[in-house]
Amino acid sequence: MKVKYIDNITFKKMFLGAAANLENNKGIVDSLNVFPVPDGDTGTNMNLTVQAAVREINNLSESTITAIANAASNGSLMGARGNSGVILSQLLRGMAKGINGAIHIDSKIIAESFQLASDTAYKAVMRPVEGTMLTVARETAEKAMATYMDYDDLVVFLENLLLQAKDTLNRTPEMLKVLKQADVVDAGGKGLIFLIEGALAALKGVEIKPEEIEDEVIDTSVELEEFSSEDEIIFTYCTEFIIKNPTKTAEELLSKIHDKGDSIVCVGNENVIKTHLHTNNPGQVLAIAVKYGELTNIKIDNMKEQFRERLKNNNKNNKRKKYGFVSIGMGDGIEGVFKDLNVDVFLSGGQTMNPSTEDILEAANEINAEHIIILPNNSNIILAANQAKKISDKDIQVVASKTIPQGIAALIAFNEESSVDENIETMTEAIKEVKTGQVTYAVRDTVFDELEIKKDEIIAIHDGDIISHGDNPEEEAIKLVSKMVDEDSFLVSLFYGDSVDEKTAESLKKGVEEVAPDCDIEIIYGGQPLYYYIVSVE
């Protein structure tokens, strides 16, 4: 039977089907990370963005096509996480424009909405890169505009658009060298494929149900409300994470961590395990969990610090200050460094868990300041930060720091007496003067620039390249520093993660001094997960 038109009921089913299909396959998208590092999060970010749209749709009081499309646009805008999530929110925004006012949807409206979606997403990105989800969206839209008049059956039309999308996706490695080197297609483009496939299945009458896990954990800020004093907080760190493709059951993991804290929730299925607990040693818990599969969505909050901040905010007067800061990162040691540099709100996030546009807005709204400066400290958060700036009523400025060391350098360059424009210029220049490297481990076998890397090997990354690999984090850190320093370098700082003990980190200093004899060396506790060391060279 031909499908000539899509009504509001079918349109809603198609969107929910698309969302469910992405939810069920987000792990595949995550695995397409160019680097084999343990923080591939494109699928997670796209899924969380779409789920924010789903919540908005499910809260509608009316269900016209226009209302559904606008709800998807608004929900995804606020829930957008990471570059892929922000681009997806712009695709949905453009699509809503193309559908606006439609009583039913035909092939022409589909084509026009796809075209507007692509145009809107391209305009949102300062320097669009071909070989990404943008290319998949654009070529699919071009195919739709060129052929929509040939179809009176929307099932056949969408099937052919899906073929175009897949063809474009398969060609992305030819457009981007890094994809070809890693032998993967573009992750965001793959996410779009799953969305189209889910929508098409719903149009055919096939229901896709999300593989949901019950028992969502409570937000940390809500949990804090049960405490009347800091002394009541026995376990300091609220720790959350998800294990993808677990090798054992949630019950088996629970048996290993049940004595490591309290408020423990550990639930899952064969695809994921969600875990939440309060503990005094999150690194120990993560070290156990990583043996069960790949970790993602890691979130560690210092509840005592948050409790003190809440008291301070409740007790401080309402006098408005000139400047306020939001900084984003992970690790209680790194949080301490930013707090010492007068950051008002340290938003937990970064690798594996990018904060949404709404998260960033809420953080900015906590600050009573004339000017608020956001330091994303991650290239995958800058778009969401700029989106928050665009829709906020406050004067928000974004300093486009891509790493923790860049964020620190920007804050050190800040001058309370300078104007906003002067500070933004000075801070932006400061981030150009610092080099960043990371030491982590590979989550899969891969070949990168002729380096044959095996799963679980230690890898050192600098300036977008894997520069070395081996079996020892400290040896790779020394190789990394040797590569990063030059005749102008004067300071090397190493932030060690939660899986490295202090004695091991301090013993690294001598080796670093040998490859950087003219530099001052600092060994600093960062407490970040997944990365043994974050290296800063100035």
Short description:
This protein is α/β, with parallel strands linked by helices. Helices cover 49% and strands 18% of the residues. Helix 14 (332-340) links the parallel strand 5 (321-329) and strand 6 (345-348).
Features:
4-stranded antiparallel beta sheet; 49% helix; Rossmann fold; 6-stranded mixed beta sheet; Alpha-Beta Plaits; globular; 538 residues; 16 strands; Serine Threonine Protein Phosphatase 5, Tetratricopeptide repeat
Helix content: 40-55%
Question: How many strand units?
Answer: 16
Q: What strand order characterises the main sheet? A: 13-12-9-16-14-15
Q: Major sheet: size, sense and barrel closure?
A: 6 strands, mixed
Please give a structural write-up.
The structure is a single chain. The strands form four sheets. This protein has a six-stranded mixed sheet. Strands 2-3-1-4 form a four-stranded antiparallel sheet. Strands 6-5-7-8 form a four-stranded parallel sheet, with helices on both faces. The protein has helices at 8-30, 42-58, 65-79, 82-99, 107-124, 133-147, 154-175, 177-182, 187-203, 220-224, 250-257, 282-289, 303-315, 332-340, 357-365, 382-391, 404-413, 420-431, 473-484, 502-515; strands at residues 237-244, 261-268, 272-279, 294-302, 321-329, 345-348, 369-375, 396-398, 435-441, 446-448, 451-453, 458-462, 465-470, 491-496, 520-525, 533-537. The chain has four domains: 8-203, DhaL domain (Serine Threonine Protein Phosphatase 5, Tetratricopeptide repeat, Alpha Horseshoe), CATH 1.25.40; 221-304, Alpha-Beta Plaits; 317-431, Rossmann fold, CATH 3.40.50; 435-537, Hypothetical Protein Tm841, Chain: A,domain 3. With 538 residues, it is α/β, with parallel strands linked by helices. The protein has 20 helices and 16 strands. The chain is globular. β5 (321-329), α14 (332-340) and β6 (345-348) form a beta-alpha-beta unit.
